[in-house]
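Slide 14.
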Amino acid sequence: MVDLVISGDCVVTPHSIGPADVAIAGEKVVAIAERGAFPLSANARRVDAMGKIVMPGGIDPHTHCLWPTYGPGGAIEYTKGPSVVGKAALFGGTTTIIDFTRWTHGKTVQGAIEERMAGWRDDGSPCDWAFHTMVEGDLPPEIPPQIGEAIEAGHASVKIFTTDITPSRKGRMVDFGDIWEVFQVLAKKGGLGVIHAEDNDIVMHMYAKLFREGRTGFENMAEVHNTLSEDLSFRRVLRLAEHVPGTTLYMLHVSAANGVHAIRAARGKNLPIYGESLHQYMLYTQEDYKRPNGQIYHTYPSLKSQADQDELWRGAMDGSINCVATDELCCSLAVKTQGRQIDDTTGGNSGVEPRVAVMYSEMVGKRGFSLRQFVDAVSTNAARIMGLYPRKGCIAPGADADICILDPALKRTVRAEVMHESDYSPWEGREVNAWPSMTILRGKVVVEGDKWLGDDRGGTWLSRKVPEEIRAGAAL
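Slide 15: predicted structure.
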């Protein structure tokens, strides 16, 4: 029995973009056919999506909910949890987010996962979710096998830092011997390495140099987290992966042309290497640090030059950059702007709600990308790489009925005061060419217009397995 039919003239499915009816029963898409093909029962609903874009719900593969950061006065406080971020995501047409379990010394990987699961369930997530497993520092010999067990249990991806990021975060970086051990586990168990790659020697050298020279303001961030660092670290990580056949990598928040070049070269060798950038890297440069409250545009590593940004767009066009994420960190403006120096500026950003609209406006509206390329960048590619496809990231029979109806008639100016994340937005004042008019999560209309109709705890954890074609280096 069909519960819901969406009838539109621009329906994005894996095989076509055009007129169609999408039939939904329970939580699943059950059929796609020509318009008017499905008679409705008395209790079913037909949604008229004519003139709108019917696309799979967005997937943000890089968020940080309930994340420790420094509040006013230096006290540790936690960012907003999935109860806030998940609802903001749904208002913005994103139906799934992938966050992080942080393993630290003194815990088992399984213990860290269970603790993280409990925190999310206590807070409650209205959207669907999964976790990358983050490891850091000197890894005890029992940790790589535990990572393998986590991969087998459905936590398919593992985050690794090649830098401590700032001098105050000693212990974040994993050395290359331990990375080598983890890569062997990834190759054997079919996992995905999720890599924050910066050259620690270069980064720490530049911190020391700028402090000596008295150039400590955050507006100098691009000199510290610089393009040379990205070049050296990406090349070294990718070379190591090449020496462990079967290693599949997802290079996080690519910010510089050098990172794009390294991924492109690896893809040229048919290596299974994929790239992610962030919408702020693709739309802001280091010059924006000089604006009032310039910290709001920052996330680590750093904004770079216009030439770097131009190469990110070329990478998005040719498939070197596969996904556009947010590095979501939902904190207040006071927390985001409290740091004034290169070593204390808050990373992350509040961006999960406007991401789909902003990227549609930039990709399709301004830069000549096709609708398919846009949908791939904000949804389908993340589902494929992260082991969620075809359950997520597509409108097809058998898929979860996660759907965003994007309305080009809803041209808006982004304002934090009318969104659902924080008291600021890095996109404040930006004009967008469309906005979601409806979001559907597993067959249920959760947002309609500006109304919340969802279940505050309606999200579910998603078990993931990276598919063989991704591990073989499939072109996306």
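Speaker note: Residues 227-242 form the longest helix (16 residues).
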